[in-house]
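Is this the right way to post C-alpha cells for a design question? Let me know if I should format differently. Anyway, here goes:
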C-alpha cells in the first residue's frame, strides 16, 4: 500500500535487502520518494536518479556515501551470519545483530586499506546451512575459507563473471551431489579446495584461471579420460586422491597435453593415489618438465617405471602393481628428494647404483620390494639422510661398512647419522652388527638366519671380528653353584613363612576357645545361682537338671577339684570354673 502515497520519505533508516517489486517501475501516485541513507542493495530502479529530492517524481538513493552497485558491506555480512546459523557459531565477536561491529572489526574478517572486506576465514567455527549468493556483493572479496564446518550447500546463484575472488576453501564440510558448474564463471578463481566432502561427480567446467583443484576424500564416481584434462592443464596442483570409484587410466598423451615450454601452464602436483586407476604409466610423463610431485600409490597401475622429468621431487608408487627393475631415475642434475616404492612385490633386481648420483635424496623407501643382492658400499652417501628403509627384502651379507659402524660410539664424527635405518627381515647372516639388537635390524621371527662365513662376516669393528667363544668349565660350575644357592634360599624362606602361618593360626584358635569358655562360665553363673537350695561340704548347692532328671548341683574351682580325694565323675574340663554333681545327691534325688 506504500505506493499509493504522494510523498514517501524513508531516508536515514536501517532498511536492508533489495528494492521491492512495486518500486522497480515508477508508482503513478508518488510525487516525492526519498529512500536515501539506508542499507538497500544497489543498483536502484532505473527510473530513480541520484539527484536531490525533488517534486518531479525522482528518488534520491545516493546522498549517503555508498559504493555504486553493491550492498553496504555490514548488511551483506548480516545476511551471511543469518544464512549460516550465526547464533550457533563457536566464535562470533562483532557479528551479533543486536550490536553489530563495523565489518572490519568482526571475527574472521580481513580488510584492505580502504576498509573493504577482502577475506573471510571462519575455520572450525560450527557454521551450518547454505552459503548465500549475496556474499558476492562484497566487491573486494578475494578469499573465502569456511573449512571444517557443517555447510550443506551453496546458493545456485553463487556466480559472477566480474567478481575477482581468487581462493575458495570449503574443505571438510557436508557438501554433496554434483560439484557446481558455476565455479567456471569466476574469471580470477585460482584455488579450489573441496576435499573431505560428499561430492559424487566431477565438475563439467572449471575456471580457465585455475591453479589448484583438490577433490580428495570424496565419493566421486568417474572414469578418467583425456577429455577431463582439457580443463586442467592450467592447474599446478591436482589432487583427486582417495576416491575409490575413480577408474580408467592416465592418457598416453598426457605429457603432450599439459606440457608448456613457456611454463605458463605449469603442472607441479598430480595425486591420484587410493583410486581404482589401472593401465600403465605413460611414457610421455617426462615431458611435464614442471612436475614436482607424482603419487599413484595404492592403485592398480602396472607396467614398468618410465622416465620422469628432472624437476620431480617426490615419486610415490607404493602398493601398486608396478613391475620390472628400478630404472635409472636421474643423476646430479635431478631434484628427487623422496622415493617411495614400498610394498611393490613385482619389482625385481638389485639396489640401483644410479640412486647414489642424486645428491638431493632425503628419503628412500624400498621396503617389501623383493630386492636381492647386497647393499652397495656406495650407499655410504645415504649415511646421513633422514630415512633409508630397505626392510623386508632378500638382501644378503656382507653388510657394508657404513652400516656396521652406524652406531659406533668410537666414531666422534658420526653425529649426523640417519634418523631411521631399517634393514630388518632380510637374509643377513649372524652375528649382526652390535647395534642391531633393536627392531630395525632383526631378522624375521619365522626365519632362521644363516651363519656368517669369513666372506660374509661383518667387518669394520673390533668387536664384530671376534669369533664368539664357548663358555669355560669354571663358568659352568659357577652357574650351577649360583643355582643351588638360589634354590636353598627359596626353600628356607618358604619354611619360615609356613611356620609363621601355623603359629599365628594356633594362637588365634586358643584365644577363641578361651573366649567361649568365659562366656559359658558367665552363663552358668547367672543361671544356676538363681536356684540355690543350701550349703554343702564343698560349697553352695543349687537345683538343676542332669539327663532330664532333677539333681543337686554345685560349682567348684579347678584347685578344689584337684584337692578332692574322690574326684567327681562329672567334673568339667580344666578351666577357670567348672560344674560338678555328687553321685550320692544324684541318687538321693532320683529316689
Amino acid at each position: 500500500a506504500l505506493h499509493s502515497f504522494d510523498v514517501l520519505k524513508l531516508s536515514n533508516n536501517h532498511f536492508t535487502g533489495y528494492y521491492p517489486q512495486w518500486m522497480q517501475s515508477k508508482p503513478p501516485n508518488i510525487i516525492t520518494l526519498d529512500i536515501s541513507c539506508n542499507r538497500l542493495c544497489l543498483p536502484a530502479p532505473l527510473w530513480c536518479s541520484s539527484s536531490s529530492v525533488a517534486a518531479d517524481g525522482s528518488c534520491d538513493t545516493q546522498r549517503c556515501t555508498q559504493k555504486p552497485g553493491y550492498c553496504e558491506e555490514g548488511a551483506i555480512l548480516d545476511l551471511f551470519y543469518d544464512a549460516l546459523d550465526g547464533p550457533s557459531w563457536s566464535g562470533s565477536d562483532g557479528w551479533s545483530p543486536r550490536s553489530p561491529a563495523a565489518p572490519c572489526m568482526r571475527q574472521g574478517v580481513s580488510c584492505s586499506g580502504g576498509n573493504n572486506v577482502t577475506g573471510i576465514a571462519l575455520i572450525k567455527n560450527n557454521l551450518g546451512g547454505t552459503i548465500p549468493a549475496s556474499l558476492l556483493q562484497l566487491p573486494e572479496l578475494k578469499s573465502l575459507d569456511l573449512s571444517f564446518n557443517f555447510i550443506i550447500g551453496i546458493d545456485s546463484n553463487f556466480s559472477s563473471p566480474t567478481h575477482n575472488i581468487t581462493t575458495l576453501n570449503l574443505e571438510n564440510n557436508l557438501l554433496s551431489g554434483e560439484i557446481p558448474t558455476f565455479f567456471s564463471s569466476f574469471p580470477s578463481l585460482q584455488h579450489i579446495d573441496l576435499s573431505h566432502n560428499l561430492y559424487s561427480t566431477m565438475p563439467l567446467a572449471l575456471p580457465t584461471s585455475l591453479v589448484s583443484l583438490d577433490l580428495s576424500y570424496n565419493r566421486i564416481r568417474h572414469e578418467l579420460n583425456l577429455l577431463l584434462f582439457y580443463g586442467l592443464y592450467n592447474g599446478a596442483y591436482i589432487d583427486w586422491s582417495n576416491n575409490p570409484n575413480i577408474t580408467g587410466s592416465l592418457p598416453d598423451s598426457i605429457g603432450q597435453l599439459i606440457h608448456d615450454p613457456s611454463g605458463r601452464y605449469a603442472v607441479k602436483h598430480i595425486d591420484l593415489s587410493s583410486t581404482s586407476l589401472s593401465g600403465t604409466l605413460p611414457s610421455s610423463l617426462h615431458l611435464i618438465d614442471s612436475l614436482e610431485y607424482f603419487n599413484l600409490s595404492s592403485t592398480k597401475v602396472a607396467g614398468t617405471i618410465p622416465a620422469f622429468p628432472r624437476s620431480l621431487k617426490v615419486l610415490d608408487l607404493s602398493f601398486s602393481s608396478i613391475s620390472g627393475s628400478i630404472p635409472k631415475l636421474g643423476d646430479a642434475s635431478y631434484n628427487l628428494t623422496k622415493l617411495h616404492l614400498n610394498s611393490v612385490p613385482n619389482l625385481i633386481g638389485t639396489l640401483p647404483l644410479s640412486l647414489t648420483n642424486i645428491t638431493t635424496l632425503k628419503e628412500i623407501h624400498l621396503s617389501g620390494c623383493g630386492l636381492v643382492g647386497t647393499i652397495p658400499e656406495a650407499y655410504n652417501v645415504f649415511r646421513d639422510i633422514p630415512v633409508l628403509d630397505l626392510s623386508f627384502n632378500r638382501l644378503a651379507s656382507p653388510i657394508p661398512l657404513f652400516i656396521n659402524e652406524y652406531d659406533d660410539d668410537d666414531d666422534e664424527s658420526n653425529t649426523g647419522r640417519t634418523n631411521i635405518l631399517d634393514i630388518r627381515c632380510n637374509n643377513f647372516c649372524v652375528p649382526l652388527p652390535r647395534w642391531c639388537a633393536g627392531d630395525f635390524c632383526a631378522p624375521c621371527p619365522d626365519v632362521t638366519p644363516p651363519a656368517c662365513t669369513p666372506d660374509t662376516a661383518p667387518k669394520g669393528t673390533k668387536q664384530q671380528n671376534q669369533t664368539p667363544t664357548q663358555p669355560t668349565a669354571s663358568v659352568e660350575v659357577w652357574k650351577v653353584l649360583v643355582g643351588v644357592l638360589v634354590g636353598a634360599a627359596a626353600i628356607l624362606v618358604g619354611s619360615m613363612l609356613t611356620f609363621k602361618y601355623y603359629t599365628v593360626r594356633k594362637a588365634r584358635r586358643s584365644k577363641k576357645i578361651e573366649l567361649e569358655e568365659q562366656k559359658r562360665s558367665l552363663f552358668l553363673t547367672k543361671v544356676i545361682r538363681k536356684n540355690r537350695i543350701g550349703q554343702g561340704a564343698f560349697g553352695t548347692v543349687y537345683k538343676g537338671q542332669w539327663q532330664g532328671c532333677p539333681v543337686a548341683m554345685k560349682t567348684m574351682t579347678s584347685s578344689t577339684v584337684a584337692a578332692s580325694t574322690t574326684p567327681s565323675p562329672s567334673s568339667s574340663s580344666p578351666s577357670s570354673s567348672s560344674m560338678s554333681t555328687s553321685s550320692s545327691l544324684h541318687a538321693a534325688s532320683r529316689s
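Format looks fine. Someone answered above. Worth noting: The longest helix spans residues 473-528. The first strand starts at residue 7 and ends at 9.
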